[in-house]
Amino acid sequence: MAESTRLVDLVQDAIDDFLDQRQPHLAGIAPELSPFIDYSRDLLRGGKRFRALFCYWGWQAVSGRVDDADPLPGTTEDEDLRAAVLAAGALEIFHAAALVHDDIIDNSDTRRGGSAVHRRFEAAHRDNGWTGDATGFGRSAAMLLGDLLLAWSEEAFDAALALLSSPGAVAAARAEFNRMRTEVMVGQYLDILDEQAWRSHPESEQLSRAHRVIVYKSAKYSVEAPLVIGAALGGGTIDELSALRSFGLPLGIAYQLRDDLLGVFGDPGVTGKPSGDDLREGKRTVLIALARTKLPANAVRFLDELLGDRGLTELQVRMLQDAIRDSGAVEHVERVIRHNVELATDALKDAPITTSAREQLIRLTDTVIVRSA
């Protein structure tokens, strides 16, 4: 994993350089804009960097670059590597924007063990004794920072494309990036829609609707899209991109199913989120949909009554956790995770990609699935 570790460092350097270049512009407009840079830096220093890693290994899967040979400065190979690293950074910036907006939508207090961005702006309002509503200010300011991060991710991705010599690779990578943005936004809407409108749909649709949210809000965006964007940057063929999609989508589904389990049962000291956070937010996940099919009617009513209650006590959270666990839904989700991992690894066996990328993607599969945060 030495090259992946090196990549994470290169991506962090690219992100830091990007923010350094934009800091004087904001400072020249007004000193009060310093939180936009400071909060962005804090948000972009953490995380698992899965999207950056999948982007890079998607590029490496089709580029055929020799892993242990550093490209010569100024060569086409050097420019291609810079493009892959900068595109990986752009994906991380896009992810930061999504996290800021997601925390506003979910009314979350924490992110990665610290205060969510809208809570930081809210605290600044209170600490400085400004007039008006601190909560409203925090949400509005964070929404604008999220929008700015979206714009910056676009700038970073454009800078990556400018390094490519192949117009075909530029067009293909741009198309995949655009597709990703659309799908994650509508996937987010479907998520919040199902939290509110689930009673309007037949019981028989609950599981399929939850699965649809997983695919478009997370699975494609977390694994498949970064892989394919990276491969498109490297000039990948239709067959190469198709093979990476066949790997990326089931692994992305498994990734989100693991997240759903952690959202209900995760250790807050590790996840950086309160225990049972998804229960308080009322997430209508595959885990919940499966539990509802397995529980007796009175237990389903109990689950439906409490799910989404922001004021859930620790005792109520434990009661819901016990009900979900006792239903057998957790074991069912674990089986689905294993099945999707098998689909992903099978897709790699005869995939027309480099040997080094195949080996690293298999290793990343374990990292993505066997985790506690």
From TrEMBL:
Any Pfam family matching the protein: polyprenyl_synt
CDD domains named in the record: Trans_IPPS_HT
KW Transferase (keyword) present: yes
Cofactor: Mg(2+)
TM annotation in the entry: none
Gene3D superfamilies hit by this protein: Farnesyl Diphosphate Synthase
Domain of life according to the entry: Bacteria
Signal peptide positions on this chain: none
Keywords for this protein: Magnesium, Metal-binding, Transferase
Classification via InterPro entries: Isoprenoid_synthase_dom_sf, Polyprenyl_synt, Polyprenyl_synt_CS
UniProt-listed SUPFAM superfamilies: Terpenoid synthases
Similarity annotation: Belongs to the FPP/GGPP synthase family.
Identification of the protein by name: Polyprenyl synthetase family protein
